[in-house]
Amino acid sequence: MLRMEQHSPRLLGGRYQVLEQLGQGGMATVFRARDQNLQRDVAIKVLRESLIGEPGFRERFLREARAAANLSHPNIVTVYDFGQDADQLYLVMEYVPGTDLKSLLRRQTRFPIAEAVEVMIKICLGVGYAHRAGLIHCDLKPHNILVTGDLQVKIADFGIARALAAIDPDEHSEIVWGSPLYFAPEQAAGNAPAPASDVYSLGVILFEMLTGELPFKASDASALAEMHLNQNPPSPSKLNPAIPPSLEKIVLKVLSKEPSARYRTADQFGRILRRFATPEVAIDPTEHALSFPAPELPDMPDAQTQAVGLPVETNVDWIAIMLGLLAFLALGGLLPLWLWVCLLYPSCPLNP
Question: What is the dihedral of CA 56, 59, 62, 63, to 10 degrees?
Answer without folding.
Answer: -100
